[in-house]
Amino acid sequence: MSTQLDLKELERKAFRSTYQDGLWDLYFGLIVICMSIFVYRPATGYSPVNIVLALSAMAAAYSLFWAGKKFITLPRMGQVQFGAQRKKRRLTLIIVLSVVVLIQVVLVSLQLLAWANPEVGTRFNSLIRDRNVMDLVVASIGALIVGPSMILVAYFRDFPRGYFIAVMIALAVFLMIYLNQPVYPIIIGALIALPGLVLFVRFLQKYSLRQEEAPNE
Amino acid sequence: MNKADGSADLSALAEVDRLIHEPARLAVIALLYVVESADFIFLMNQTGLTWGNLSAHMSKLEEAGYIEVVKSFKGKRPNTMLRLTQAGRVAFQAYRQQMKRVLDGLPE
Question: ipTM of this predicted complex?
Answer without folding.
Answer: 0.81
